[in-house]
Write a structure and sequence with these properties.
about 130 residues; alpha/beta; Rossmann fold; 7 helices
């Protein structure tokens, strides 16, 4: 199983050409075993739409209803352990709460995080794959 950062999830689920060939191939190769997102990504998408920074071409509710119905997509809960871990990430990591929760989720699952976020890619305490 792999975890998609919010931006990668958006690009994958909308069929965007902005999704890198590398990420697309990894998702295709792993999709049978499952791909996952943190529940916090739903909040991030809704916030981006509410601030006018993301246009999904449909309402957030409709988009979520459609993309969360993808059989190979797993929604990972915000467990107490992950939430606490997000406050205790080793080393230096920026303060964005959503990024901290996504990184803590990947660390707790012991899996790879697909991301385009430069700050996450530079963080050596989580396994990442960039574009």
């Amino acid at each position: 199983m792999i975890i998609l950062d919010t931006q990668v999830w958006i690009w994958w689920s909308t069929g965007s050409e902005r999704l890198s060939i590398n990420h697309r191939q990894l998702i295709d190769d792993t999709e049978r075993d499952g791909i996952a997102i943190s529940t916090i990504s739903i909040w991030e998408v809704a916030m981006l739409v509410s601030k006018g920074r993301l246009d999904l071409g449909e309402s957030v509710d409709s988009w979520l209803g459609r993309v969360l119905d993808i059989p190979t997509l797993h929604l990972l809960p915000l467990s107490p352990a992950v939430l606490v871990e997000s406050t205790r990430l080793p080393g230096e990591f920026h303060s964005d709460p959503a990024d901290r929760i996504i990184v803590a989720t990947a660390r707790s699952m012991g899996t790879v995080l697909l991301t385009t976020d430069g700050k996450i890619l530079m963080y050596n305490e989580v396994r990442t794959v960039g574009p």
